[in-house]
Amino acid sequence: MKLYLYGIINSSDQIKESIYGLEGSGVYNIPLCDIGAVVSEISQPIRGVTKGAVLEHEAVVEKLMENFTILPVRFQTIIDGRDNLLSMMQSYYKDFKDNLERLHNKLEFGIKVIWPADKVKENIIKALKKGGQRMPESDSSVSKRFIKEKFEKYEIDKEFEAKADRFIKVMDIFFSKFAAEKKLGKLKTENLLLDAVYLVEKDRQNDFREAFEHIKNAHTGLKYLFSGPWPPYNFVVLSKKSGLLRDSEQADLFDKVTQCQTLVGADSI
Amino acid sequence: MDSVITKSKDVTLLEILDRVLDKGVVVSGDMVISVADVDLIYLGLKVLLSSVETMEKLRGSPFIGPTQEPT
């Protein structure tokens, strides 16, 4: 029996409402200690990446997010049987627990800011010309022209980056007031000034939205894309050791987890 | 499923793809059945993600770049 894994949740309880996942199979929780792996059974050969399958996966994760803290698992993670799933859970148990605690009651929001790179560069060139920072026009030899062009490009790029940094700093100071964690991506393309994700406490999400509206209104001439709330896809941090434990470590962890299972009275292993 | 559909009216499908295909927990080990082709297909999506114009197009509104420098 192959199990399609949607996420790890902070509960060993069975899921009360009916949720259907890929191929219309019922979604259920396989507990380990005080956490659980939410799966559905999958029998057919693995399909490719289709829009429908991605949306089905995301729909299950979002449904679970309503009632649990969830660590979303990447699309098409399929485990060969219940025993293997529990073995995986044991080796990742500490990481899963740490992440579930850190991400409890928190949501992810995405912010993309697009600026008109051509216009920005145009203005930089104008300003540089005005400021007289270009090399003298009298340098007309091929080598000097080459150096001059390189120098100008360097100056423009430097100012372009500096300008991006200034904009991002102003925005980020504002957003960070309401966020627990963040990841900022600067100029992934020339037009994509900022591609950021913020982790926000559930009860501060309205403040965060207001901060976004404020920035949007304060900086005209930019285009914005706000998305969320999302499960914390960008904020799950697994240590490199997880899944690669030595036999002795595995045995030690297995003992701890077994004790935990005994304490909570679970008998599902 | 409803929540995804509702949300996708407001945000681009690429936002979902970016997360579901490229982020989240990745478990490794013999017990995990490897998933063929995801990386390759995602490579194509990365190209899409880097295109602001494509992002705007998929969002459902034509891209009209700002004509003025931001203030």
Write the H/E string of chain A, N to C: EEEHEHEHHEEHEH
- Overall radius of gyration of chain B: 16 Å
**Record field, number of beta strands of chain A:** 8
Number of domains of chain B: 1
Write the layout of secondary structure elements.
The complex is a heterodimer of chains A (269) and B (71).
Chain A (H helix, E strand, L loop, with lengths): L1 E8 L17 E6 L2 E8 L8 H15 L4 E11 L1 H21 L3 E9 L2 H14 L11 H35 L4 E6 L5 E10 L3 H14 L4 E8 L16 H18 L5
Antiparallel strand pairs in A: 1-3, 1-4, 2-3, 5-7, 5-8, 6-7
Helix pairs in contact in A: 3-4
Chain B lengths: L1 H9 L2 H10 L9 E2 L4 H12 L2 H8 L12
Helix pairs in contact in B: 2-3
Care to give the gist of this entry?
The complex is a heterodimer of chains A (269) and B (71). Chain A is of the alpha+beta class.
Question: Explain this structure to me?
Answer:
The complex is a heterodimer of chains A (269) and B (71). Chain A contains six helices and eight strands. Chain A has 269 residues and is α+β, with helices and mostly antiparallel strands. Chain A folds into two domains: 2-103 and 242-264, no CATH class; 108-230, Alpha-Beta Plaits, CATH 3.30.70. In chain A, strand 6 (181-186) and strand 7 (192-201) form a beta hairpin. The radius of gyration of chain A is 25 Å and the shape is elongated. Chain B is mainly alpha-helical and 71 residues long. Chain B has one domain (2-59). Chain B contains four helices and one strand; from the N terminus they run ααβαα. In chain B, helix 2 packs antiparallel against helix 3. Mean pLDDT of chain B is 55; it is low at 1-10 and 34-67. Classes of the chains: A alpha+beta (269), B mainly alpha (71). At the A-B interface, strand 1, helix 1, strand 4, helix 2 and strand 5 of A face helix 1, helix 2, strand 1, helix 3 and helix 4 of B. Strand 4 of chain A pairs antiparallel with strand 1 (32-33) of chain B.
